[in-house]
Prior knowledge:
By secondary structure, the chain is an alpha/beta fold. 23% of the residues lie in helices and 29% in strands. The protein has helices at 15-19, 53-56, 58-62, 80-87, 122-131, 141-144, 203-208, 218-233, 244-247; strands at 2-14, 27-39, 42-46, 70-73, 94-98, 117-121, 150-154, 159-161, 168-172, 181-186, 192-195, 237-239, 253-258.
Amino acid sequence: MKLFSACCGHIGVDIGLLEGGGIRGELRRVPSMCFVVEHPEGLVVWDTSMHPCVCTDPVGYWGNLATTVTVPDYAENETLIARLDEAGIDASRIRFVINSHLHNDHCGMNRFFPQATVLARRSEYEHAKGLMDTGKHGYVRDDFFGDGQTLELIEYDDTFDLFGDGALVLVSTVGHTPGHQSLQVTFPSGRRFVMTGDALYTARQLATRQPPGLTFDRKEAQASADRLADLEDAGATILIHHEPSLWETRPAVALLWQEGGEAA
Ligand SMILES: [Zn+2]
């Protein structure tokens, strides 16, 4: 088993969305991270960052959000496909594409893995479908999956074990959105990583058990922040997608961990 991170562009996000307290008109530049897990049962992509149209026509693809509260800084050589190529991973071998949630900076490349099954949580998909095309909620119809691509909707309350061996477990972390989830990856040695998605935006939120600024349900988001902090207390390494300090010192594509225990 291997776990890779891939930095797929950046976004200037209004600090109020990240930390709370309402829109402030001040942006913080944060990375847009994706992850790849190589498991004996197949390659799994976790989040796919932004659609390539965002490189050339962000307002056309995202609407006015792209000039106000989520301003992308994204180039064609930063897409997940380009990053996989850098890592020597054949994109046509990806078996599952799974997203923490369906906001436009987490699932924009889903359709570029046409042979892969997109595994979506039904509660997130139904919510996103209802708000796509409004230009206001960060959900874009063309992001979710492509024509002819297999979409599999899953339903669970607490956890979902992808391969039935405990290695890749989806953990419900609702609150940022109604169907938000995090991915727990456990290696045979017991070494455990949890990719938060947007259930946490900052290292400070993890340390102080605070939910992200942008929430659909604040009470649920608080419970999810607590859940992630509890996982950290139990020994897991918590990987916060949009926390710059975790990623700025690593190469754009990094092997975070592999079987045998050596960190790259
Ligand atoms: Zn989000």
